[in-house]
Fold MFS transporter.
Amino acid sequence: MPHPTPALPASLGPIRLGLRANLAQFVLLVAVNALVGGELGQERTVVPLLADQIFHLSAYTAALTYIVAFGATKAAANFFAGTLSDRFGRKPVLVAGWLVGVPVPLMLIWAPSWGWVVLANVLLGVNQGLAWSTTVIMKIDLVGPARRGLAMGLNEAAGYGAVAVTAMATGAIAAHSGLRPEPFFLGIAYAALGLGLSALAVRETRDHARAEAALHPAPRNPDRHGELTTGRIARLTSVGDKALSSASWAGMVNNLNDALAWGVFPLLYAAHGLSVARIGLLAALYPAVWGAGQLLTGWWSDHIGRKHLISAGMLLQAAAIGLVAVGTAFPVWAVAQVLLGAGTAMVYPTLLAVIGDVAHPAWRARAVGVYRLWRDGGFAVGALLAGALADAYGIITSIWAVAALTAAAGLVVAVRMYETHPRPATTPR
């Protein structure tokens, strides 16, 4: 049966929670997040090839420094996005994220050295951390508790669908016109449109979170509800609460293997003689299935719960990464990318829904920020780990190591996480 729309106190005026009640703003935020994803997608095919073919970086660790820079700055920006959006409002943080992102495609076009590419990815990390985190927080604000999984599925589907479309488009453009500058013209258009929509059309949603918080005046559990300091929230999300901390670990490993897919897989494909266009297609397959799959999996988690979907998704990712390691041709890698996308679709919106389930509306934005700090820190950890192992033992060894870590994360969720969705009759441990 559908959840009823919560009744809000009269003092909160016309504010209403729910997807249908806030459909226009929700759809606008979906479009904005697609543009955020497109800003990331402009790099997925072209930048690894820039490292190899333009800047001639022979060591994997050196070639992956741009992902380290991106992951570290995005992780930090995620943390501050939650805190700043609670203090100053969601919209100013979203606009600030787009302002920082505007120079990125221009720097990639004009970069005279690899250091410029790394610096561009510092700015890209801030852009993604502030803008993507804020669209997540704003959608959670708008929809309330009943459709949180669906909302996260739509948000992440839009973002990673745009990553896929842009990765494939830039690969096709690069195959026709070269690696620079034409593939990055898409990024210029995305940044201009995203900034314009965020500044002129998006409305503030912080009052929706306050409205939902007013429905929970009495703490159910002092460790999960009520006003907490940012430090206490960080500890709860990182280690204290079994669901929040398990989600944080799974999220970090998920993006650790995404760093592998972003930075190492294209180099593996190129070493086997694949064309730029075919590399672009493989780079697009994974986020395409990931993005489209979240339209189902977010909704599905609202009906069957979160825990088992996450655990199964991590194990499927591990199997897919192993298939990349044993493959030597396009058809096998294409199947692996489809499976990797399906596994990630099971995990990604569901982890965000876990944070929304457990965190009280009064401190939910900061919990999302802490979770995304850990999750996107996985980019930096993954790039460093994959690069070091590839340089020391070969690229296949690095892929198998990440597959093993991903399987371990799935088992941690299966053993440690409690079910967080309010519908299943499960008691938190």
